[in-house]
Design a protein that fits this description.
single chain; about 375 residues; alpha+beta; OB fold (Dihydrolipoamide Acetyltransferase, E2P); six-stranded antiparallel β-barrel; four-stranded antiparallel sheet; 6 helices; about 40% helix; about 20% strand
């Protein structure tokens, strides 16, 4: 037998349960509606990936000529400034070659000056030979008209004198032609022999300037492999300098995420090295020309019958705010998380030709103006 109060208690419990279920259902519906509105108005305009890494220029420091290392002034992890001395090579042999090139230039200038003097000498010889020929011809004609008073032997001697004078004139004219050919249309400064010696001197000066290697950019030294006393060949990588103030992000997005991605869209980046405490801001610089697999050493061949579709990823280059990079430096190769705001699709998906990414290095000790002054000095001292 059930009492009335037991039925009323069961009904109250059911009503309470229904009430909480209704409230829970309403909360779930409201949450779904709010999330739908959030996704529709905000979240759907973002594309993100954690397949992203810090990239940057790795400026290689290489030897330009065969040389022996005598001093090192930088090591891995050391920060260097543009123009700072990094490596010193033994300059003895290049200095000797430079001194020999200076002597060769002086010799070439003196030789050219001698050639110009030879022109005047051969011209004087031609004039003298022409006078001698005229005298010999006049003597021969006079003996011919003398009749029997001149013996045949004297006449033959006079004719031989004319022949000899003609030969001397031809020899002098040939020497004059050769001397003129050596200097024709030139002066001491632009004579071919002098120009060749000048080129050799410039080459020796350039080689001598290569005996010191300087940091081409501001950055951090990495990948030092050279040791003091090591003999290195031309083109040997010795170390690298990484400019950390101009790094970028290479983010690999799935091909389905690229539909609304455009150049210039804003980007937020967080790096694992700083956790979520630091947020970088940047913009999309450009989209890769192909997927990563397309440029692999062994590109995939999908012509076989057992082909399986694999979602491809395309690298997207992202530029960061330089001030934020200075405040919180990033290292090349670090992992980052990237989120791109793709709401504004007015930008281009393919960039226009540009030279914005430009890296210029420090040239070194070669002083073109000083070498030109030295050349003019040598020519003036030996060409007067």
């Amino acid at each position: 037998m059930k009492y009335p109060y037991e039925k009323e208690g069961a009904t109250d419990a059911q009503n309470t349960r229904r009430k909480w279920l209704f409230i829970l259902g309403a909360v779930v519906v409201v949450a779904l509606v709010l999330y739908g509105l959030y996704w529709l108005l905000y979240a759907r305009h973002f594309e993100g990936t954690d397949d992203a890494y810090v990239g940057g220029d790795v400026v290689s420091i290489t030897s330009r000529d065969p040389a022996t290392v005598v001093a090192l002034y930088a090591d891995n992890t050391q920060t260097v400034r543009r123009g700072q001395l990094l490596i010193q090579f033994d300059p003895v042999r290049p200095q000797a070659a430079f001194d020999a090139a200076k002597a060769d230039l002086a010799r070439a200038v003196r030789g050219t000056r001698t050639n110009f003097s030879k022109v005047d000498q051969y011209r004087a010889q031609v004039n003298a030979a022409r006078v001698a020929l005229d005298q010999a011809q006049e003597d021969y004609r006079r003996r011919q008209t003398a009749g029997d008073s001149v013996s045949r032997e004297e006449l033959n001697h006079a004719r031989d004198a004319v022949t000899g004078a003609e030969a001397n004139l031809k020899a002098a004219q040939s020497g004059l032609a050769q001397a003129q050919a050596a200097v024709q249309g030139t002066n001491v400064s632009n004579n071919p022999d002098v120009l060749a010696a000048i080129a050799q001197l410039r080459s020796a000066a350039i080689t001598l300037s290569h005996m010191k290697l300087y940091a081409p950019v501001d950055g951090v030294v990495a990948q030092r492999t050279v040791q003091v006393g090591q003999q290195v060949a031309a083109g040997t990588p010795l170390m690298a300098v990484v400019p950390l103030d101009s790094v970028w992000i290479d983010a690999n997005f799935k091909e389905g995420q690229l539909e609304d991605m455009r150049i210039g869209q804003p980007v937020t980046v967080t790096a694992d090295i700083y956790g979520g405490s630091v947020t970088y801001h940047g913009k999309v610089l450009g989209l890769g020309a192909g997927s990563g697999s397309a440029f692999a050493l062994l590109p995939p061949q999908n012509a076989s019958g057992n082909w399986i579709k694999i979602v491809q990823r395309v690298p997207v280059r992202i530029a960061l705010d330089p001030k934020e990079l200075r405040d919180h430096p990033l290292r090349v190769g670090l992992s980052v998380d990237v989120s791109v705001d793709v709401a504004d699709t007015s930008g281009a998906s393919v960039g226009v030709p540009s030279n914005k990414h430009e890296v210029r290095g420090y040239v070194g000790d070669y002083d073109e103006a000083a070498v030109n002054r030295l050349i003019r000095q040598i020519i003036a001292q030996n060409g007067a």
